Amino acid sequence: MKISRRTFLKTAVGGVLAAGIPQLPLGYTSSQSKRLVREFRFSASPARVNLGAGPDFVAWTYNGQVPGPEIRVKEGEIIRVVLKNFLPEGTTIHWHGVPVPNAMDGVPGVTQKPVMPGETFVYEFEARPAGSYMYHSHVHYQLDQGLYGPLIIEPSHPQGNHDREYTLVLEDWVMKDGGGVADTTRRLPPMSMMGGMGRVRGGLEPGGSPLLEPVYDGYAVNGRVGPEIKPLEVKKGERVKLRIINPSSATIYDLRMAGHTLTITHADGRPIKPVKTDVLRIGMGERYDVEFVADNPGKWLLAAADTGLGEGMLRIPVHYQGVNRKEAIPPTFHQGARFATYGDFQALYPTGEAALEPVQRSYPQTLSGGMHSPYWTINGYVYPNSERLRVRKGDRVRISYWNQSMMPHPMHLHGHFFKVVNPSLPQRQWILKDTVIVNPMQRVEIEFLADNPGNWFHHCHNLYHMEAGMANVVTYES
Length: 478
Ligand SMILES: [Cu+2]
Fold this sequence. Notes:
There is one protein chain. By secondary structure, the protein is mostly beta strands. It folds into three domains: about 5-160, Cupredoxins -  blue copper proteins (Immunoglobulin-like); about 165-175 and about 215-340, Cupredoxins -  blue copper proteins (Immunoglobulin-like); about 360-475, Cupredoxins -  blue copper proteins (Immunoglobulin-like). Helix content is about 5%, strand content about 40%. It contains three helices and 33 strands. The protein has a seven-stranded mixed beta sheet with strand order 13-12-9-15-20-17-18, with no helix packed on it. The two termini are about 25 Å apart. The relative contact order is 0.12.
């Protein structure tokens, strides 16, 4: 049964029901109308920030802070975000990982027009399924200017047996006015024709060609860098859950905790059979929930190495209550450490049918770039002049990535979870993800069920690769 917006507003319980909100989506059924509406008001604006150490600078922010406010709701609630744009250019918000209705997906030119300066836009969707997500702008380089934040959907009934929980947002920063678009030193891609110079300043050339990755001068956790990163306080005997979220624009982290073993419980918010690991690799756009048992009192570091150039460590202190020790002990990243890979993961619950499901559409995607041009390509195309991946509702679609470049590409599909193909496991044990790292010269295959009609962006989550063309659109045919 369709009901009017007026009825919806009257019957929705909780939340703040503001009058005169434009573009409120219609079409709620009466059962949905009884759901709790959680409303958040976001002002996107430039603001002077300080990451605890380093200079003040002007970042682009939600509500004046970096990262943006944590959205934390329960599964089944309605998230409503009223976005007001105080930036000097258009903006959007994308709900990374959440399979929202297409019109709420926040991709300019694909699902909506940018929200222009002075305008307001209302995002509204059901918070489902439970998991760790993020939100961020999908316009130009705004992600690397500070427009992102954590989004946590808690299970409607408590799950797990942890005693304490932390959200860790891992961030790469250029601590200059404008962040990632600032005039700063930039990296040349490996094996570039301009190699030998190593680093250049500014973009590659004037006149709108894509920017190269900056050399970051700050790695932050929850908006704090270096010695200002807030310690994780734990008590002996506790089971501690960490929701690790990587909205960084161009940094893959290898995380390792001294004195403890990490157990991975969720990949991109989806539950997996627990896997113990020494080192956790997390790419741009990925999320991992991990747990550890606080059974080794002391002062320790959960530290990250940047897999790119090895520079820029971030160190998260782990402090046991009542322990007095000056120096925290860092982890070592020695050879032979256990290193979890996608092949080690199995879904905790069966995904899909037991019988082998046929694939209706198959799309090879060759990832290239970085050698002779500033562009990054899929099958040789630069977005928006790229091929469309056409699907029909109900299709099982396979995408076969082949990375022919020297850089890893965390590939992200909007609007769907996909299975990561693992030939050594039955299909129903393949894990569900929404972002998958395709390493240099490697092949990775994914499959998804086309169950969410619309036009869906599909791209590398290295922001500088995406803006340099490594993207296309999955389109539903009627
Ligand atoms: Cu890439």
